[in-house]
Design a protein that fits this description.
about 425 residues; mainly alpha; 14 helices; about 80% helix; globular
Length: about 425
């Protein structure tokens, strides 16, 4: 089981290596070549297109896997190889173009075209790879214990990638760009090599796949999936708000801007250390109980943040440790529940085509909307409240506590009615 887990988890590493540079590095690199407003609008358009395309990409994958007459592992590997090639080439173009444009004094219009085309291709390829990859994991995991382990092993490798890439996230020098490029290429090739020949169990259908379709309305009409998506959205927005405001909080409330990288490192290392604990707890307590526990721990930790000020550097470090430990349960358990519900729903409608791609497409769409909503809610609200340290504390910690509590109560209600 363990070799299979780590073979599967390997693809999460190149995906994790892309995440911070795509969201943090690109605006910085291209703001030196183009007006900041132009860069912002282009990236907003690319990210919006990417988010809206997720359900369509999931549907295309379901159709392709339903139409395949041979083993699914072949077409799944080809899809991963195609997506990986596109996002590697697209990202390397985005990463190295500013160096070329600066050296040869190229017209800014070329930089705009590269940013527009490269970002769209990279985001879409990243999403396609994620959908196929997670659909593969949902097919591999056949029981609750396996779902926990696949989710947690994937998150462990993802955290490793985030920690490694955070060292080079500024990528201002030629050497740093070269290191990022080599890591992305080598780890993508390694993951594809490990995936070669990995099993991809096929759902047996009793009729033609066109007999019944599965779409957003069908998903909404499925009560367990609907409740899971509501709980996940509330919990994920609550997590995205502190992620949006952490640099402001460390600067304005703690007055320690130079300590921000250390707090982030402490958070991610604690999250990685906590993953084995969540694996054992999920076997003993179940996915929904572990998710409730993780949300309860996070609520208590963020409530503690409301009383912090400049003298509380160590106390905030402890908050980072506690919230980091809770992260594994808060991220892996919802996905494990989703994987179980996908298999249960597929078993109830064997005449339908596969549904994993679309369910995961909507899942990733919700995750991306959460990041947008967090910025759209937190930053304007802070400005409206006066943009001072006290109002920042209430938004950074108080608002997530409220949203996490709503998610926790909703999940408890669903457990009582046996909807989840």
């Amino acid at each position: 089981m363990k070799p299979m887990l780590w073979r599967y988890a390997s693809m999460r590493l190149p995906l994790a290596l892309l995440e911070l540079p795509l969201y943090v590095l690109l605006p910085k690199l291209y703001s030196e070549l183009l007006p900041l407003s132009v860069v912002g609008l282009m990236l907003l358009a690319a990210r919006s297109l990417d988010a809206l395309a997720d359900p369509w990409l999931g549907r295309r994958w379901d159709l392709q896997s339903a139409a395949s007459l041979g083993p699914l592992r072949g077409i799944a590997w080809q899809a991963l190889a195609f997506a990986s090639t596109v996002f590697v080439v697209g990202f390397l173009l985005l990463l190295w173009w500013p160096t070329l444009a600066d050296r040869y004094a190229l017209d800014p219009i070329w930089s705009g075209l590269v940013l527009a085309i490269g970002s769209v291709l990279t985001y879409l390829a990243y999403s396609l790879c994620t959908i196929v990859y997670q659909s593969w994991g949902a097919a591999l995991a056949r029981n609750n214990a396996e779902r926990s382990r696949y989710a947690l092993s994937r998150e462990a490798v993802g955290l490793l990638g985030v920690i490694v890439i955070s060292i080079f996230v500024q990528a201002q020098s030629w050497f740093e760009k070269l290191v990022i490029s080599l890591m992305l290429v080598l780890f993508s090739m390694l993951a594809l090599a490990l995936f070669r020949g990995l099993a991809y169990p096929r759902q047996v259908r009793s009729r033609e796949p066109e007999a019944r379709d599965f779409h957003a309305i069908t998903l909404w009409q499925c009560h367990p999936l609907r409740h899971l998506f509501i709980c996940y959205m509330l919990s994920a927005i609550a997590a995205a708000i502190p992620a949006t405001l952490i640099l402001f909080f460390v600067d304005k409330v703690l007055n320690a801007p130079d300590a921000a990288p250390w707090f982030l490192a402490l958070y991610f290392l604690s999250a990685a250390a906590g993953l084995p604990l969540w694996s054992k707890l999920s076997d003993r307590l179940g996915h929904s109980s572990c998710w409730l526990l993780a949300m309860g721990v996070a609520i208590c930790a963020f409530a503690f943040c409301l009383g912090l000020d400049e003298a509380d550097i160590v106390a905030y470090g402890l908050v980072c440790v506690v919230t980091g430990l809770a992260l594994g349960g808060d991220v892996a358990m919802p996905w494990a529940i989703l994987a179980r519900l996908i298999q249960e729903q597929q078993a109830k409608m064997p005449q339908a085509m596969p549904i994993a791609g679309r369910c995961i497409g909507y899942w990733t769409l919700v995750g991306k909307l959460n990041l947008a909503l967090a910025a759209g809610i937190a930053l304007p609200l802070w400005q409206w409240l006066g943009a001072d340290a006290q109002s920042l504390s209430w938004i950074y910690a108080g608002l997530p506590c409220l949203l996490k509590t709503l998610s926790l109560l909703w999940l408890l209600r669903c457990r009582r009615s046996q909807a989840l």
